[in-house]
Amino acid sequence: MARPYLGDPKHTIEILKKYAFVFQKRYGQNFLIDPHVLEKIMKAAEIGKDDFVLEIGPGIGTLTQYLACAAKKVTAVEIDQALIPVLEDTLENFPNIEVIHGDILKIDLQKLVQEKNQGKPIKVVANLPYYITTPILMELLEKRIPTASMTVMVQKEVAKRMCAGPGSKEYGALSLAVQYYSKPSIAANVPPNCFMPRPKVGSAVIQLKVYEKPPVAPQDPELMFRIIRASFNQRRKTLANGLRNFAELSLRKGEIQDALEKCALPADIRGENLSLEQFVQLSDVISKVK
């Protein structure tokens, strides 16, 4: 098997010129051109010879080459038709890679994992387009695609929100959703000059170690997440006001006051001060009056 070579900016430029490739803003394309960052991604992803890897958005195949050298099998899903012939070129000497042209949000991932890895947990690695980071991650997490871990490049601020705890300005509904399904940690911060073209914001590599079962067990997870959304829908409002004004809940003032008292929560507390465990407790109490 060939060795990866696309981490070198010179080779990246050669490939882009060869195919007269034009970057598409609608796909949020920013290609990595720093071998040190690629090595950090590989270290964080902990890819072994028995692993099946799903890569989302391989671009010209830079990270894909590294993954192929470490994994048993790599399936890379690329939405941009213009990149398919490029990938056929750059990955031709890596026999354990399959490239699929398609939209990751429209692919039956349960079926893919069953067919490619007999339903066993896969590892996801991606340099995600910033505009669609959250929908892709939540699709994988909420649908419980068999996944051991996700190691992804995201906007730095989004990575901080995923890892944030109660009381911090970054803490919100995304923090709670990600932490319900996984244990997030930032593996590396990545400056704009590591990409071509340069993004306007800093990036970070975040690893999500996906739980087999969530660490908490609300009686009604769907209700809990409605309560979470209500709590952060009007961030400056108190939790009580947020719950009362959220149409998806239809809670009366007295019901909310009673629920807060049963959870030993002050009447003026804000949602940003509640931990995941406290949201579980609150939703369990509210579920009994719904």
The average pLDDT value, as a whole number, equals 94
CATH class of the largest domain: Alpha Beta
> How are the strands of the biggest sheet laid out side by side?
4-3-2-5-6-9-7
Segments where pLDDT lies below 50 for 5+ residues? none
Biggest sheet character:
7 strands, mixed
Describe the protein in words.
It is a single chain. With 290 residues, this protein is of the alpha/beta class. 39% of the residues lie in helices and 18% in strands. The strands form two sheets. A seven-stranded mixed beta sheet has the order 4-3-2-5-6-9-7, with helices on both faces. A two-stranded antiparallel ribbon has the order 1-8. Helix 6 packs parallel to helix 8 (173-181) and helix 9 packs across helix 12 (276-287). The longest helix is centred in the C-terminal third of the chain and has 13 residues, at 221-233.
Task: Give a short overview.
By secondary structure, the protein is α/β, with parallel strands linked by helices. The protein has 12 helices and 9 strands.
Tell me the layout of helices and strands.
Layout: H1 9-18, E1 31-32, H2 35-45, E2 52-56, H3 62-70, E3 73-78, H4 84-90, E4 97-101, H5 109-117, E5 122-127, H6 133-142, E6 147-155, H7 156-163, H8 173-181, E7 182-190, E8 195-196, E9 203-210, H9 221-233, H10 239-244, H11 253-262, H12 276-287
Parallel strand pairs: 2-3, 2-5, 3-4, 5-6
Antiparallel strand pairs: 1-8, 6-9, 7-9
Using brief descriptors, characterize the structure shown.
290 residues; alpha/beta; Rossmann fold; Helicase, Ruva Protein, domain 3; 2 domains; two-stranded antiparallel ribbon; 9 strands; 39% helix; 18% strand
